[in-house]
């Protein structure tokens, strides 16, 4: 694993999450593979890019209806090379929501694990698994 | 664009914003070109390093008077090479304010775009454009 | 100082702080040298890896008793090469605490300085000095 790949992963996340936070559901979904999965452990799972786009559109509409601008913050990004040029990552994530009156609220912190794969030379998200820190597993 | 430049940009921001957060207005202003601009879209624009230093001094005094320590947090940094060795960046920014009683408050999140240029081998901020997420444009 | 070392430092911090935030006190302590020091300026100082492990265990138990999940966030990381392959870093740090009801609270921001040294080819924390922004020095 070298710094050039780390840089590429950071750019991948910057573009992916700017798409989401700017409300571009299709562009966000396109950062997943066609058969990609977005898992909110342990209760919710969305499979395929098409379904991820639909779920993201609903999320974007909900955010607009709430009158806030959400921003995602990733931190403590650990990366690990996997088979066939794939990469496993693990990081903490937070989401801020800024309202029109300037107030900032926070959604629960999460621990996220991604499996990124290379398709036609480009990194794509194959599986994202999100564990919210307010959900205590038995 | 390679990882060495990304590292250089990260170091540029680390030093720039540590200067600001430590109240060193002159050192902060010196990270801008002599003809640099700091734009708070859509209402406020400060041109030239001299004026940026003056505006920053007023900001630092206001922060001290408020009895808080501000810290800036940049996230989701996307970088793009531009002409003549210049770099365009785009990132989300947040500012925390810690009071003497230990409480932490947050200023509205922002989306920031910078044009960085190279002067005598060193990166400098030519234009910074800040868009606050609590300001909804028509 | 090159981007490969910057990447290595980022990975060091990712693993170090994921250990702490996941409650692995021993793994966290093992990121310090045997004679390492953790200094909370100006009032508290813990010396040796053994004592850091004990202090961290108490911290982890306190966090569990409070029913929250803490996550550390480092930002504006400045790095500087020192003698004998050592590295000095300086960065801002924040800690979020997510409760079971989903609420997020924040501990005071800090400015942190580390001295990292290389032991058997691996980076270890020799000294960490934390200055809380709610503590105003005379």
TrEMBL record, chains A, B, C:
Limits of the SnoaL-like domain: 8-123
Classification via Pfam families: SnoaL_4 (PF13577)
InterPro entries given in the database record: NTF2-like_dom_sf, SnoaL-like
Highest taxon of source: Bacteria
Classification via SUPFAM superfamilies: NTF2-like (SSF54427)
Name of the protein described by the UniProt record: SnoaL-like domain-containing protein
Source organism of this protein record: Streptomyces tateyamensis
């Amino acid at each position: 694993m070298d710094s050039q790949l780390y840089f590429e992963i950071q750019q991948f996340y910057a573009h992916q999450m700017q798409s989401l936070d700017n409300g571009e559901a299709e562009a966000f979904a396109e950062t997943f593979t066609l058969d990609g999965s977005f898992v909110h452990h342990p209760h919710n799972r969305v499979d395929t890019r098409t379904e991820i786009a639909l779920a993201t559109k609903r999320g974007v509409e909900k955010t607009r209806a709430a009158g806030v601008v959400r921003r995602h913050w990733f931190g403590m990004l650990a990366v690990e090379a996997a088979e066939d040029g794939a990469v496993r990552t693990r990081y903490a994530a937070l989401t801020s929501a800024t309202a029109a009156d300037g107030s900032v609220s926070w959604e629960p912190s999460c621990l996220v694990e991604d499996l990124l794969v290379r398709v036609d030379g480009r990194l794509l998200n194959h599986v994202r698994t999100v564990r919210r820190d307010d959900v205590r597993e038995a």
